[in-house]
Amino acid sequence: AMALCLKQVFNKDKTFRPRKKFEPGTQRFELYKKAQASLKSGLDLKAVVQLPPGESINDWIAVHVVDFFNRINLIYGTMSEFCTERSCPIMSGGLKYEYRWQDDSKYKKPTKLSAPQYMCMLMDWIEMLINNEDVFPTRIGVPFPKQFQQVCTKILTRLFRVFVHVYIHHFDSIINMGAEAHVNTCYKHFYYFIREFSLIDHRELEPLVRM
To answer: Where does this protein hold Zn(2+) (predicted)?
Structure first.
């Protein structure tokens, strides 16, 4: 069912598709393959997220940030027809949580946006960062910038909000599409990863604590 959903997304909306690939032959590609292999082997997700011996923490985080971006982008893509200006005029997670958008260019102050607008800004913003060689260097021997983990924390915090919105406002659609197991596995993987490396402030996790 999930494959069918993804096919519909690819056909329906060209804007939602994985936008970042790892170049074969690079260390990052090898790490990505290693991470995917352990994920597919059915290992406990808590074990899967642990840093492999001898690997660089920043490389490991970079690989996961890009992979989570691609996968969450697709999950939202499958939902996007149910998440409209009319159904979701505010980017929120239930009645208690509202997320405003802020960036360094167009929205310098936190600004109320509809959920679809917020998602669009978010995916474009992350894509810009992960394709920026000064932030996510891909060449061997080029060091990560000092603020790399802070940037990743910001990316992952905002990606977590996609889960919050999708789970609280569109869970019925996930179930109807037969995508529940897929989304749950992706969420668990994401959750264990951010907990393993303390990458998100625990207050940000509040909206999904009950779930």
So the answer is: 83, 88, 165, 170
- For the chain, the average pLDDT equals 85
**Residue indicated by tokens 């260390």:** 27
Is the per-residue pLDDT at 102 higher than 80?
A: yes
Annotated binding site: 83, 88, 165, 170
Sequence-distant (≥ 6) Cβ neighbours of residue 174 within 8 angstroms: 79, 166, 167, 180, 183
> Considering only the top CATH level, what class is 58-81+124-208?
mainly alpha
- Which residues are CB-neighbours of 190 under 8 A, at least 6 positions away? 68, 72, 156, 159, 160, 163
For 56-101, write each residue's pLDDT tens digit. 999 999 999 999 999 999 889 888 889 999 999 999 998 899 999 9
Q: How many CB atoms lie within 10 A of CB 188?
A: 13
pTM: 0.85
pLDDT for the residue numbered 201? 93
DSSP alpha helix (H) spans, the chain: 2-12, 27-40, 45-48, 57-79, 115-130, 148-176, 180-196
Kindly state the tokens that stand for 125: 């913003």
**Amino acid code (one letter) for 66:** V
Question: Which residues line the annotated binding site for Zn(2+)?
Answer: 83, 88, 165, 170
Determine the 3-state secondary structure of 144 from DSSP: coil
DSSP state of 82: G
Asked if residue 139 lies in contact with residue 26, where contact means CB atoms within 8 angstroms, the answer is: no
